[in-house]
Amino acid sequence: MTAVANDIKAGRGLVDEALFGSITNFVMLHDGETPERAERIADQAIAFVATSATATASMMPSDDVDKGLHAFILHTREHHAFCDRVAGRFLHHTPASAPVEGGRPLERVTASARAMKAAGFQVFDGLWEVDGTNAAQCDSDDGRPY
Predict the structure, then answer these.
(1) Cβ-count burial of 87 within 10 angstroms (0-12 exposed, 13-18 middle, 19+ buried)?
(2) How many whole angstroms separate alpha carbon 91 and alpha carbon 34?
(3) Is the overall model pTM greater than 0.70, yes or no?
């Protein structure tokens, strides 16, 4: 019998520690998040961008993950270089695609969390909520401990 390893990736592993720390610090200072929560937000934002490079789903972050996404984008040189490395092109942020009223559609946020899981990233359920509903739940059972 052959054992199959399910390596779960972390977004933070895709950037150097200095950049990860800077994104985390930005989220702490500007969004009032605790250090632990800010680290998780930064991790998910980086994983979100990496997944967006190849995802077939229309990607939309949760409100919490969007905090980290904005912090990452404000590191313009590093964000541009990251996009070139993971996607071969710049990945634009289009805030106009976010709904003006009614919040983010649960289906779009859920599709994004599922795409990240399918890409092998750990997804922190508590950061993927829409109006109190966990958007990170997945019916798929591929043996990974979510």
Answers:
(1) middle
(2) 28
(3) yes
How far apart, in whole angstroms, are the C-alpha atoms of residue 144 and residue 140?
10
Q: Which of 131, 3, 144 is nearest to 63 (CA)?
A: 131
pLDDT digits (tens, 9 = 90+) for 44-90: 999 999 999 999 888 999 999 999 999 999 999 999 999 999 999 99
Q: To which H or E segment does residue 65 belong?
A: helix 63-73
Q: What φ, ψ does residue 9 adopt, rounded to 5°?
A: -90, 155
Q: Contacts from 89-97 at CB under 8 Å and sequence distance 24+? A: 91/49, 91/52, 91/53, 93/69, 97/60
Computed on alpha carbons and rounded to an integer, the radius of gyration of the chain in Å comes to 15
3-state secondary structure of 9: strand
